[in-house]
Recover the amino acids of this structure.
């Protein structure tokens, strides 16, 4: 049985949709008419009209589904449309490239990045030997797919997961694969000596907040010692380094964020030494990445609910995996080519933080059901190491604007390379001995020193 559908959009977009999809039956749809935004006419009956998206009256649409004919709507507009359609018991579909699909969280989440300067990015990547750690992971693999299209001289993907490397190898058969653990300093050094990368994206990390809280020594060995192994190998072959960091490194409350903050401080100290760059890029919560909340919500929904949220007031900065890859490339190209300030953390403007409970509601609405009516949401309390709200810039950091809109350099009180290296050595030694409680204490003790006023902090 076909679903009755109404095409929604500006008249020109609806007209193009009618022409682009010659056989709506193949999609299981019967198009009954259009709801137009603005003026104009189309070759099918106009069932509703509104001056703007937010003014459209969904109660006047008698159909099973709406099809958004206007491509690339802002996420906030799409989110509002999906919400209102779900309230009217209408299924929402999206028309893209002549094909009809269900909307995903990527359509609803994340402020669109400022204009991505692909010419600058291509100029920086083309003809270069590029290596990505964590190259089979969610962010690393998306980064790899983008870089593969930018004509690198060579693309090497390092990962400790055989399965992840196997998957990305099938997608990018021209890439060189390296089954290697970033914690194996000798293996990393041998790989770098053989591949001689000129640009290194360090995306490999342990990211699951509660898991790293439970095993802090493992977090230190991967996120701190692994970062040092990669950074030292990059330095030895003369490569620029891009360190993938997180908003959880800003005034961290948990071990995972603290380990990433130590990684930031180390890379910032390296960057201030001159020579090749060691650039930190902070991302928010990447939807669909390993450990993100979205797959958990979808699994809970498949079981009929409830969806579990830590606290009704919890907010996060969200971006999709493609947005994360674009942000990394944009920041890396700017940082390496513009001679920006050394020792900074580059921050991409991600708009306003979104309540996590709204993300849960979006997941429910995307299934055509109504949150709190058809599917319940329950609150389970904060997990170890979590904060109610995340920040992209610390209170004591100074922000310097770049020439490129939407990119900020966050400057913090510096630590010398020797000072941060000593901290790392103590942490690594404790982790190797399995002293997890002492690891956590030492981590936060080091960051309390780092956060001390300039008169008492270790200076550059």
């Amino acid at each position: 049985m076909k679903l009755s559908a109404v095409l929604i959009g500006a008249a020109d977009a609806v007209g193009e949709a009618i022409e682009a999809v010659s056989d709506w039956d193949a999609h299981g749809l019967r198009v009954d008419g259009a709801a137009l935004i603005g003026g104009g006419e189309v070759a099918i009956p106009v069932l509703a009209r509104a001056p703007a998206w937010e003014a459209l009256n969904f109660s006047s649409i008698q159909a099973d589904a709406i099809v958004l004919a206007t491509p690339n709507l802002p996420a906030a507009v799409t989110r509002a449309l999906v919400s209102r359609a779900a309230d009217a018991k209408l299924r929402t579909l999206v028309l893209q490239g002549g094909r009809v699909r269900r909307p995903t969280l990527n359509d609803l989440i994340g402020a669109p990045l400022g204009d991505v300067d692909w010419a600058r990015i291509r100029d920086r990547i083309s003809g270069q030997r590029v290596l990505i750690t964590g190259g089979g992971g969610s962010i690393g693999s998306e980064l790899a797919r983008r870089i593969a299209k930018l004509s690198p001289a060579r693309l090497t993907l390092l990962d400790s997961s055989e399965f992840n490397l196997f998957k990305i190898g099938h997608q990018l058969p021209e890439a060189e694969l390296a089954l290697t653990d970033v914690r194996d300093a000798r293996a990393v050094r041998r790989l770098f000596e053989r591949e001689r990368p000129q640009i290194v994206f360090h995306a490999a990390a342990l990211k699951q907040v509660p898991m790293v809280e439970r095993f802090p020594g493992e977090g230190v060995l991967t996120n701190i010692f692994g970062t040092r192994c990669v950074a030292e190998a990059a330095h030895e072959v003369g490569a620029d380094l891009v360190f993938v960091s997180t908003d959880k490194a800003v005034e961290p409350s948990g071990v995972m964020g603290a380990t990433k903050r130590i990684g930031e401080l180390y890379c910032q100290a390296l960057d201030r030494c001159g020579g090749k760059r060691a650039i930190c890029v902070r991302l928010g919560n990447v939807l669909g990445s390993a450990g993100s909340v979205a797959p958990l919500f979808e699994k809970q929904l498949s079981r009929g609910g409830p969806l579990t949220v830590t606290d009704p007031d919890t907010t996060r900065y969200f971006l999709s995996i493609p947005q994360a890859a674009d942000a990394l490339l944009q920041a890396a190209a700017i940082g390496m080519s513009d001679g920006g300030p050394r020792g900074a953390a580059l921050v991409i403007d991600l708009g306003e933080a979104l309540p996590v409970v709204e993300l849960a509601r979006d997941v429910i609405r995307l299934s055509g059901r109504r949150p709190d009516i058809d599917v319940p949401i329950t609150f389970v309390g904060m997990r170890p190491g979590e904060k109610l709200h995340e920040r992209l810039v610390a209170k004591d950091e100074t922000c310097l604007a770049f020439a490129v809109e939407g990119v900020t350099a966050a400057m913090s009180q510096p630590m010398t390379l020797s000072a941060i290296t000593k901290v790392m050595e103590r942490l690594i030694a404790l982790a190797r001995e399995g002293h997890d409680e002492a690891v956590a204490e030492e981590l936060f003790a080091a960051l309390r020193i780092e956060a001390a006023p300039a008169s008492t902090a270790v200076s550059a």
